[in-house]
Amino acid sequence: QVRLVESGGGLVQAGGSLRLSCAASGRTVSIYAMAWFRQAPGKEREFVARITWSAGTTAYTESVKGRFTVSRDNAKNTAYLQMNSLKPEDTALYYCAARTDGDSSYPYWGQGTQVTVSS
What we know:
The chain is mainly β. It is 0% helix and 56% strand.
């Protein structure tokens, strides 16, 4: 079992920055990748970014490329999402998720942290 706790959300003006953190506990040795998803009101949850735990390989959805950076600190069992040049359309509830090598999807989820970008 892997437990995830997000933090770092808040209210920011357009053009500003926030850094989200996702602290993992439990069977962290089994983590293969961690990802960030978001869900805006009335919309489907969408993938934002992910990083593989060992190699640090990253991937991003097109709308955040060049603005968001996903990273991890293996010693702290924590993943981060640095969000720069924020836009009102980035407003959403942001979740982190984790999967092990044997998972085809992400079975472990945090509770979410709200990001609100004002225009």
